[in-house]
Amino acid sequence: MTTQVIVLNGGSSSGKTGIARCLQAILPRPWISMSVDDLVDALPPSLMGPGSGIAFGQQGEVMVGEGFRAIEAAWMTGVAAMARAGARIIFDDVFLGGAASQERIRTHLEGLGVLWVGVRCDPEIAVGREIARGDRTSGMAATQAEIVHQGVVYDIEVDTSHTESLDCARAIAGHVV
Amino acid sequence: MTTQVIVLNGGSSSGKTGIARCLQAILPRPWISMSVDDLVDALPPSLMGPGSGIAFGQQGEVMVGEGFRAIEAAWMTGVAAMARAGARIIFDDVFLGGAASQERIRTHLEGLGVLWVGVRCDPEIAVGREIARGDRTSGMAATQAEIVHQGVVYDIEVDTSHTESLDCARAIAGHVV
Amino acid sequence: MTTQVIVLNGGSSSGKTGIARCLQAILPRPWISMSVDDLVDALPPSLMGPGSGIAFGQQGEVMVGEGFRAIEAAWMTGVAAMARAGARIIFDDVFLGGAASQERIRTHLEGLGVLWVGVRCDPEIAVGREIARGDRTSGMAATQAEIVHQGVVYDIEVDTSHTESLDCARAIAGHVV
Amino acid sequence: MTTQVIVLNGGSSSGKTGIARCLQAILPRPWISMSVDDLVDALPPSLMGPGSGIAFGQQGEVMVGEGFRAIEAAWMTGVAAMARAGARIIFDDVFLGGAASQERIRTHLEGLGVLWVGVRCDPEIAVGREIARGDRTSGMAATQAEIVHQGVVYDIEVDTSHTESLDCARAIAGHVV
Questions:
Q1: Which of A39, A115, A123, D167 is the most buried (most CB within 10 A)?
Q2: Taking residues A129-136, what's their average pLDDT?
Q3: Is residue D37 annotated as part of the catalytic site, yes or no?
């Protein structure tokens, strides 16, 4: 089945965005890159914060309320519709709920050719890269490194600890059909 | 009919983004903000440039090829699907083709409650604001100020020349049902 | 005396940056634009936060500690040295301490030809523009609008409430000698 | 002699900025981070482009004119003055002229305790990282990787090809006195 969506799942600072850009550069056809971060950027102030929306704690924890979940579901329905309409999509996400998150995404993408990619990174290395990025909210790399992969099933896994983004992208590209 | 999508159409530097943010702040329910600029940011390098993709000329002209058009259509299908799935969407766009652009968007949004908003700005003022923004590509404000409104039909028009974004947003909010 | 430094003082969201960019565009000679925001961006994590560093409160208040003040003084000495070495500088700042802040800057700039510019904006309008900018920290516009001008003496004042950045810049440019 | 300035020299995408942020995080005292990129961001439109200013070619080459050189010299005088006034500075630069560039910087920093750091990266790896960063101007990594080090003398060299930014920073920190 032709690959229509490439899902990259990994913790914060694991290197998903860099891999997505490399995939866009090396894949022969045009792919657009989308991320749950795009949704966060699109939110109204009322959904940025604890309660109904999405909030980021001091230790890097992410808290998600019902209002955010409802909009996320509608947004994900739209991302799937883009793919069904012919746009090839590299979708990067953080499966905070592990296997349950994958199940939710899988339901949205039903009928589409999906390549599931795990982007791993040694937690200690991810923490160092978080410092190098200078993001004000630190702690996310450590918190997410392991839990986002719990129970998740992949077609291919890459590890950015000692492999460059471009080489990871090449390995992934070999599975795109 | 309940408003599900607010379409803001206006030239570059006419103030669409500021109005969108104010709408998000004052409307009682959560609205997400999407823009054709988001699509441009999501494109692969192969579609950034003349030919098949989207290119920005020295005088601020925008050239759009078939590859971009194909992905834009799929992307727009997805935006409409988000709205159908329940996400309220403020969508800002630049109708480079005037009435023809509106027709294309209208087809995508068929069946949805759409509020069509024209965002006007005196061309000379828009040019000044483009300078104040410091964007490297200048000329877009002057090129687009008039043509994006040609033949377009609106539910409401606002003019940012002498009215603040927040006041424009309040006027628009009065038409959201 | 030849103008070597243009100091723009005004509250958050009063429009200083836009005026600075317009001045750069219309002044016949090259001017570089510097801001206390550049210093904030250059700070280490240890100075971002309450205590010794600079911190931003929930209501838009800015708290400044001794560690920040010490580095700011050294940084300002350097900005003055750039001007003495021949770089024309547009310097935008927020005089949180009003007249006392001006005195401190005046001491640093001693011997240089300085044009003092007050950038005013109706507080209600500045608050609206802060919403339109979508900055996550809101409240700064309201908090700072009046206090930054208390006791400060200017060569020229502009008001962005009903005057475009470019027109304000033209008025200022008429005082550059 | 106490270290007052840490100069990081390396080609584009060699990892200087990440190392600078890690240094800021691990060094016991506060250091501010400055870069020639800050100057470029501060330039007026008249100095962005070929001729007198700074221009970036299609193949990643950087062309620098007299107007830029004059302002850069004044700006560098100011950076040195900041350090003399007590600000500890991590300064990252790209020695396009190799040894001649170092000589110019050395003159500005005369009398200060300077730690000269070479930031190397395998050219092929730097090119891959440039793709992963998604910068629109590609080619700079390849063009600059070797030439910026020609004839330059360092106190310490790090290589980001197979060493993380944080580990490079730790090695450098061991030389800060």
A1: A39
A2: 88
A3: yes
